[in-house]
Amino acid sequence: MKKNGVDGWSVLSSQGQVLFYVAMHPNCSVDDIADGLHLTSRSVWTAVGVLRRAGMLESIKEGRRNRYRVILDGPFRHPTIEGVSLRTVLAGIARSPEQGNGANGARRNRN
Predict the structure, then answer these.
(1) Measured between alpha carbons, how far apart are the two ends of the chain, in Å?
(2) Cβ–Cβ under 8 Å, residues 86 and 77
(3) What is the pLDDT of residue 96?
(4) DSSP label at 18?
(5) Can you give the pLDDT at residue 99?
(6) Alpha-carbon distance 63 to 56, whole Å?
(7) Is there a domain that residue 51 lies in?
(8) What is the mean pLDDT of residues 30-43?
(9) What's the total number of domains in the chain?
(10) What residues make up the domain containing 48?
(11) Coil/strand/helix, residue 61
């Protein structure tokens, strides 16, 4: 699949893509993430599960849906980097939950 004339490759894994997406769109749902990243809901669920178990994402129950936020004081899990928090890595792009777009903003900002 080509997006903006570029073949569909990424420097980030699906977990990395989800992590960065949630940092930029706090309070988003799995559907928001899947739509925004052009991934399947199933692959997003898998990535979210990995990130939650690693202490990088938190979920907030809202009715029947879960919304997700990055835990900025959580560890940046990478085999070559130890002792670095997500705040160090994501500080420049992370939005506060009050700035988050959630469901409507994620869909509204798509091209």
Answers:
(1) 15
(2) no
(3) 72
(4) H
(5) 58
(6) 23
(7) yes
(8) 95
(9) 1
(10) 13-96
(11) strand
CA distance 41 to 84: 29
The residue ranges of DSSP E strands in the chain, in sequence order, are: 2-3, 6-7, 57-62, 65-70
Does residue 47 lie within any of the structural domains? Answer: yes
Question: Model pTM?
Answer: 0.75
Closest CA to 54 of 37, 79, 30, 33: 79
Q: Residue 33 maps to which CATH number?
A: 1.10.10.10
Residue 6 lies in a domain: no
Q: In this structure, which amino acid lies at residue 58?
A: E
**DSSP character at residue 84:** -
Amino acid at 94: A
Minimal CA–CA distance to 1: which of 44, 38, 46, 56? Answer: 38
Q: Does residue 77 lie within any of the structural domains?
A: yes
